[in-house]
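pipeline/complex-builder :: batch 7 item 3
reading input block
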Amino acid sequence: MKGSTIVFYLLALLTLVCGILSVSTRQIFRAAIYLLFTLIGIAGIYFWLDYQFIAAVQIVVYVGGIVVLIIFSIFLTQQTGERLPRQKPGRKIFSALAVFCGFAFTMLQVFQHEFTGTLEEGAQPSVQNIGKLMLGTQNGGYALPFELVSMLLLAALVGCIVIAIKNKEEAK
Amino acid sequence: MTEPGLYHLLFISGALFFAGIYGFFTRRNLVTMLMSVELILNSVNLNFIAFNKYLWPGKMEGLFFTLFIIAIAAAEAAVAIAIIINVYRTHQSIDVEKAEEMKY
C-alpha cells in the first residue's frame, strides 16, 4: 500500500469523525472546534487531489474567516460552558432514521452507477490558468460571474451593517 | 483498502452532506444550524472537485463553481451572523423555538 493512500484514508477519517461529532456534541464551542477540523480535513483532501489553489482558498476563507466569525458570535450570544438543552428523543431517532435511509439510498445509487467522462489531458489547475480564465471575457472566461460575485459581496457587506446596527432611539 | 478514487470521494461528501442534514434537523440553536449549513456547502464543493478531477481532468469548470460557491458561502455566513446577533438583541436568545414573532 502506497503512502499517499494511507494519507488519503487518514484525511477521510479526520473529516468524517469530526463532521459527525460537530453535529452531535452538546457543547456549542466544541461543535465549532470540530467544524474547524472538518474544514481542515477537506482542505487536506484538496491538497491530496493536487488542487493547491482551492485548498488555500478553503483554509483562508473557511478556517480563517467563517469559523472565527462563528466563534465570535458564540461568544456574543452564549454563556460559555453551558450545554445545549437536550433534544426530544423522538426527534433525534426520527432524524437519524431519515438521514440513514437517505444516505443508504444515495450511496446505493452512486455505487450502481458507472460514471463515464473524458480522460483527455488539458489545462492544468495552476494559478496562472485560473487567473487567465477568471478574468477572460471570451472562450469560456468567467469575467461576468466574477463581477457579479463582487457586487454580491458588496451588497452583503452593506446588508450586514444595516441589519446589525443599533438603533439610537431604542438604545436610550 | 483499495486505491482511492471517485467513489471514495463521493462517499465522504455524501456522509458529510447527511451529517449536515442531521444537524439541521436536530439542532434548535441558530449558530449550530449555521454550522450544519456550512457542512452541507462543503460537501457540495468536494463533489464538484471530485468530478472535475476524475471525469474531466482537462477542464476547470468544477474548480470555478467551487470558487464561486465559497465566495457566496462567505457572504451568506456574514449575513446570517448579523441576523443572529439582531435576533439575540431583541429576544435575549437564539433558540429558534423562542423567536416566534417576526416583528417585536
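note: Chain A touches chain B through 84 residues (CB under 8 Å).
queue -> next item
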